[in-house]
Amino acid sequence: MDAGLEKVVAAETVLSDVQGANGRLIIRGRDVEDLARDFSFEQTASLLWGGFFDGMPADLHPPLGVARVVAFARLAPDFKRIAALPETEALRAALSLMPDGDDLQTAIDLAATMAVATGAIARLKSGGAPLEPDATAPHDADLLRMIRGDAPTEVEARALGAYLVTVCDHGLNASTFVARCVASTRAGLGSAVIAGLSALKGPLHGGAPGPVLDMLDGIGSIGNAEHWIRDALDRGERLMGFGHRVYRTLDPRAGVLKSVVTGLPACHGRLALAQAIEGRILQRLAAEKPDRKLDTNAEYYTAILLEALGAPRGLFTCLFACGRVTGWIAHAREQLATGRLVRPAATYVGPLPAIAA
Question: Is 61 a catalytic residue?
Answer without folding.
Answer: no
